[in-house]
Amino acid sequence: MFVGLRDACHEQRDGAGFSSEDERHIESTIKSFMDDFDVPGLSVAISKGGRLVLARGFGVADQETGEAVTPRHRFRIASLSKPITSIAIHTLIQQRKLNYDSKVFGPESLLGAEYEAPEDLHDITLEHLLTHTAGAWDNKNNDPMFMQSHMDHRELIAWTIQNQPLETTPGSNYAYSNFGYCLLGRIIEK
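^ that's the sequence the OP posted. Answer follows.
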């Protein structure tokens, strides 16, 4: 996305940060990206050698008030967290703490002691969640992650498993699922 930005991300000889020319290039690249994709605001952080070398906000955090974005503003990370979640789950599998065929709901399952799930959910496995084949909770029309914004994740999981039944048999159909990865996050927490 930020073609050429990496080239501008070299430290000065004294290691203090970026030259003013580099900073102008970074700012120009980011502003072009924002214009091209109609992005009202974003935050950028760049590190090198384990040290933060740049943290800046661009644009506005609130279009109504014109509040400028700072590096401290929080942004929704959306699907960027899915590969990180998958890596964490696969690490737990390699450590033999989880298995692909581990049941998510039901007696003696990964989340069974925490949530009472209808019996039709008892066939959902860890692999189904990883591969978006759980049989419910796609992100098309009724994505649970956006339906009950006042609930925390624990409440949302309990509400969803009681109110959104399976649409297909687990493992039979692919449907991109934000909620499935929410469940994986809860499994990692446990």
